Amino acid sequence: MTEQTIEINLSNNKKEKPNPDQLSFGKVFTDHMFTVSYSEGKGWHEPKVTPYQPITLDPASMVFHYGQTVFEGLKAYLANDGRILLFRPKKNLERLNLSNQRLCIPTIDEELVLSGLKKLLEVDKEWIPNAPGTSLYIRPFIIPTEAFLGVAPSNHYQFMIILSPVGSYYKEGINPVKIYVEDQYVRAVSGGTGKAKTGGNYAASLKAQEGATSRGFSQVLWLDGVEKKYIEEVGSMNIFFKINGEVVTPALNESILEGVTRNSVLQLLKYWEIPVSERKISIEEVFESYSKGLVEEAFGTGTAAVISPVGELSWRGENIVINNGETGTIAKKLYDTLTGIQKGDVTDYFDWTISVDVK
Amino acid sequence: MTEQTIEINLSNNKKEKPNPDQLSFGKVFTDHMFTVSYSEGKGWHEPKVTPYQPITLDPASMVFHYGQTVFEGLKAYLANDGRILLFRPKKNLERLNLSNQRLCIPTIDEELVLSGLKKLLEVDKEWIPNAPGTSLYIRPFIIPTEAFLGVAPSNHYQFMIILSPVGSYYKEGINPVKIYVEDQYVRAVSGGTGKAKTGGNYAASLKAQEGATSRGFSQVLWLDGVEKKYIEEVGSMNIFFKINGEVVTPALNESILEGVTRNSVLQLLKYWEIPVSERKISIEEVFESYSKGLVEEAFGTGTAAVISPVGELSWRGENIVINNGETGTIAKKLYDTLTGIQKGDVTDYFDWTISVDVK
Ligand SMILES: Cc1ncc(COP(=O)(O)O)c(C=O)c1O
Ligand SMILES: Cc1ncc(COP(=O)(O)O)c(C=O)c1O
Q: Top-level EC class, please (chains A, B) (predicted)?
């Protein structure tokens, strides 16, 4: 793709910023957004930063009917020295294009998107909160906009990035969460769309999440869709267990989302020389190991919560309390290291962060 | 729900109607639409017929991110005596509410929707084409509109009905189609959302459809997501085979959409005393029966195409030509009977059609 110029159109109507102590997740949005349009023949074109504004679409637009959408989620942090730091954004943009391929959406130039994101962050820099645990959540997404009711890939799309200053994702913060192992509903199956970050996977998860919530659990742990035996992932996190001295996480397959945090955790554990493996792991193995006193820790990993210790797991009416319901040593160390690197407070051994130059 | 008054707001800007000989599927829409809003506390409210107009939504609206959508598809016909006929609309509205339940969307009053649809048809009556094979396609759908990035059911929804005058769904018309049996990608799995009419199922199907099209097939036949062995359905049709004198269709399960046309075909076959059964049927059984010369017919059933004979099936590189690639006797009889009832030309033994009174 030839270099495209990003047009910038600033808002003269600045919104009031939220109180930094009262940030929740994904409810408040900044003053601007970044958009790129796609149409057959023209390709991705007209990259621009504009005031945050409503989208106007024909009621027959495909996004309202056939779920051909993809999205991403990453964060920007304000370092204490004033730099804006992005955590491994290229991993998210690579994954966006993997999702695009699965959903028959034309891939987008990752460099262009990264430039657009940087310009957007420059413009909305004042929206990045600084207090511990806070950050600016970045939501890139693509919607099909063609007005046509045939079931087919759209010929028109809109790519957008919106920004939202956020506090902790779970109301528990870094405190352990209670997780319900779902053995009726299925989120994704081999041959399906689980590996892609597409709306339908999340729509499919709502019913089970509702059940888990009503039983007093904060998240669902999904099992494979074929045998309902092997552990896959949590609602919006990958999952790790420390069993008998070794950290284990389910090996990637077609129905698990490859988390950027998961990948970072694996690298850190190897760097620290903590035994770790990616393999198939059944829910039975976890419960059996627990009965032998071998389950030392469990935690989820994801952009929103970073590291989320699991204090309790419930499967088929049996509940197990892990590490006395307290945050484990490894979960704590990972959380401190990752959030430290993200904020620029801890040495970034792996060159994970990208600093956005503000002119 | 107490009776709600449907507000009517007519358009003064009538669009030009398409040439009845050049109707395609789902590209042209009428002058009006019917909408009902939902918000927490208020429930479904403000039913109204308004000019067909764009929808304006915040970029953070859930519909753009998490696929919590449902839809329906049915048709209105203009009888030769001038009456507007609807084919079994209550079945579609029942199914809409089943889909709602699976997707954690509040159910909607079916009577209210039917009244709204009738009002809308009255207003846009002139848009209903009359030529053979044409009809007015009706698309009810629900989208989540809350601006919030948490993965949770929305607190706000919009229900809408839009109308589109249509010709034949497949360019082949009633002529036989070539179908590719998909054994890599999966549309839906037990425990998933296959039984619901929700966007994600269709998004998941695009990649396989793309492959089938590039190989010269017009549709995909889906197998079960667990063993990839049992036949489920076609992209937007249920499937029937006539094997050794008996008509067989896959029994309903959690991953098959219960088609209104499927149900009507089953009733007609029973009425005609043609042997018919709903049961598990493997793709192997079909190919084995074929090699013994026992596969007499195959056809798909769905609102868009009504009956679509299958002339050729391809599975794992093996192609079989059914009934010499010609429309079978039963497919033809079903097509003539169903379209005849729908148009008011054939006695409606089952009271399937509802006539809309126009004042
Ligand atoms: C289904 C699912 N699994 C895992 C993750 C974790 O991925 P990441 O670490 O890239 O945020 C997410 C969230 O992005 C998710 O939605
Ligand atoms: C996946 C799927 N299966 C089957 C059908 C056929 O259902 P109906 O006969 O109600 O149109 C449809 C279309 O509505 C569909 O989308």
A: transferase
Which of B64, B191, B235 minimises the CB distance to A63? B64
Q: CATH classification of B7-166, choosing from 1.10.540.10, 3.40.50.1450, 3.30.470.10, 3.30.300.70?
A: 3.30.470.10
The encoded tokens of residue A113 equal 């998107």
- CB-based contact A33 B59, cutoff 8 Å: yes
Architecture of domain B177-343 in this structure: Alpha-Beta Barrel (3.20)
Per-residue model confidence as pLDDT tens digits over B21-53? 889 889 999 999 999 999 999 999 999 999 999
What distance in Å separates the CA atoms of residue A307 and residue A332, rounded to the nearest whole number?
8
Instruction: Give residue B239 CA to ligand 2 midpoint distance, Å.
Output: 10
Single-letter amino acid, residue A51: P
Residues of A in contact with B60 (CB under 8 A): 26, 29, 139, 162, 164
Compute the distance from residue B327 Cα to the ligand 2 centre, in Å.
21
Question: What digits encode the pLDDT tens for the residues A252-309?
Answer: 999 999 999 999 999 999 999 999 999 999 999 999 999 999 999 999 999 999 999 9
Q: How many angstroms separate the CA atoms of B122 and B67, rounded?
A: 32
pLDDT of residue B173: 57
Which residue ranges make up each domain of chain B? 7-166, 177-343
Q: Inform me whether the C-beta atom of residue A63 falls under 8 Å from chain B C-beta atoms.
A: yes
Closest CA to B21 of B167, B122, B142, B189: B167
